[in-house]
Amino acid sequence: MPKKVLSDVSLCRRFACIREVSGLNKRQFAKLLGIDTTVSGDIELGYREPSKEVMLKMASACHVNIHWLLTGEGEMLLSKEQPVTIEKHPIIAGVESLVKDRVKDSVAELESDILSRLAEIEAKLEAKADKVQTREPAPKPSIEYPVETVAEEVSEPEPEYVTVYYGEDVAAGPPLRTQDGSYMGVKVPSRYVKTKPEDYFAYHVKGSSMMDASIHEDDIVLIRRTDMPLHNAIQVVSIDSGLTIKRMVEDEDHGWTLRHEDGTGETVPLGEDNHVLGNFVVVLPHTTMPFDLDEYRASDDADNDE
Predict the structure, then answer these.
(1) Residue 192 DSSP code
(2) Residues 170 and 286 in one domain
(3) Residues whose CB is less than 8 angstroms from the CB of residue 220 and which lie 6 or more positions away in sequence, other chains included
């Protein structure tokens, strides 16, 4: 039976990114974390999430910012010379404090200590919330004014999926030329779309030069529009009248290079006639199927007329 990809693989992407930044291959990285190479590979491919013990050991060994690992926000790595001064959520700060200050001989003992600390923090937060709720209301003004009654607004639930445009094939190998065609769309889980759906588009990957970044041939990837190159980001670029997806790297002379992620080390310089189209967000579920937007809208209008 084929393995099932997790619905949210963002944590797995960041796990793979830490291995790339550390400069270790998959076998070395798995040995550093004390896990089997198969387990490490399954995490990078999105088949399982890393355990608490693996995340804590990776944070300690690679000096990873736990806040970034869990949420994707903030700096990836912590400074070894300066203490972290940014304010974090109490739970995340508590976990980072344990990783930094206390090294346990037993993983079970460390996990018990973390759970105990989390329980204390949650109790304090609940007590603080109860205190806020029990505050006495502010005194009413001495002059009473009539209160205008307003009908209560009923907010609609957030949609589970949103529609974004689906473009031509994007090459994870030699760039493929774009083709003219009708407007197509795909349904995307709304949790991936942080702004307007118009800010995103999807592409079908051809080629295997990004396999080490867990982007494989025939994957459909979600892209957030931008025209700015970003160091170490995976980006879609218009190049040689086609499109390609590669790792963007800034050179020492501030030039830009597109790098393959397949172990070959092959690079492609970013010329003046090339431009960035967007940042890679996530590989969409394998069940994602493109559809004709014109037909979909016509069908939707017919349903509304009925």
Answers:
(1) G
(2) yes
(3) 166, 186, 202, 203, 204, 205, 283, 284, 288, 290
Bridge partners of residue 188, in order along the sequence: 162
- Residue bearing tokens 């739970």: 91
User: Model confidence over 53-62: pLDDT tens digits?
Assistant: 999 999 999 9
Are residues 83 and 200 part of one domain?
Answer: no
Nearest to 270 by CA among 245, 239, 296, 298: 239
Note if the pTM is more than 0.90: no
Which residue bears the tokens 């550390």? 22
Residue 36's pLDDT is 95
Per-residue confidence (pLDDT) for residue 65, from 0 to 100: 92
Q: Give CA separation, 244 vs 126, 248, 260, in Å.
A: 50, 11, 10
Asked if residue 145 is part of any domain, the answer here is: no
- The number of distinct structural domains making up the chain is 2
Q: What CATH number is attached to the domain comprising 93?
A: 1.10.260.40
In a domain, 134, yes or no: no
**pLDDT at residue 249 tops 80:** yes
